[in-house]
Amino acid sequence: MNAAAMPSPDALYIGVSTKMYMGYARSLAWLEQLVAEVDARPALAAGRVVPFVIPSFPVLPAAAALVADSPLALGAQNCGWSDGPWTGEVAPSMLAELGVGLVEIGHAERRRHFAEDDAVVALKVGAAVGSGLTPLLCVGETEACAPEAAAEIVFHQIKAAVSGDWAVAARLVIAYEPVWAIGAPEPASAEYVSQVVGALREALAQHALAGLPVIYGGSAKPGLLPRLTGVSGLFLGRFAHDAANFGRVLDEALSFCTADALKTSSKGQ
């Protein structure tokens, strides 16, 4: 996904963030392994499964060179809301210059530890879209609740992030991460996640956005994706810091797409 790419409602997105678990040298060594896992799967070139990686800011220039000839898309873990007098921030326009196509915005850690509220998230989303980036908008309820209630919370988070402009929402990839499941020994159940995403899509359908990519994050591991319904992929954490594990999930996604294509083909005959 380059800086000008639009999210595809038909693709599965499989991604991983390093957060701050790796140093510079280890990050580059891991990225080389990740690129090897991706390049070992030529079927990814078709674009039905979109792999992405989100390393730390200092790694981005070298990472851009490493993934240049690979289907692996490059993301950033955060961005500022503009260029100018913002010491310590990184402008989305600079990220675009570096070859970043995706930027994570609104993660629960940013909200909790850095006091980012809906207004800040909306500023960042607007700036990212204005710079040609695809916001990976992180949303999710803080406590387990009924799927319909969780979907309503998430819907209002999306609405706030785009300031009610649903044309902007069409530029997003949604990372549904129930906060109570992040870092948990087990993810939220597949049934719960599927029900939340299904109810969310019903709400988004009122704005012609039922096909918006919605991926799941929260202790996600192999074996989960085939059990989900209506979910557009997985956002992986430390589990995928072993590059071979990332490859295992890519295989599941590719198998899922192949099975889906065969079903569609048989229906058309």
Automatic annotation (TrEMBL):
SUPFAM superfamilies: Triosephosphate isomerase (TIM)
Subcellular location: Cytoplasm
Top EC group: isomerase
Entry EC number(s): 5.3.1.1
Keyword terms of this UniProt record: Cytoplasm, Gluconeogenesis, Glycolysis, Isomerase
InterPro entries, per database record: Aldolase_TIM, TIM_sf, Triosephosphate_isomerase
A GO MF label: triose-phosphate isomerase activity
Quaternary structure and partners: Homodimer.
Record protein name field: Triosephosphate isomerase
Protein species of origin: Paenarthrobacter nicotinovorans
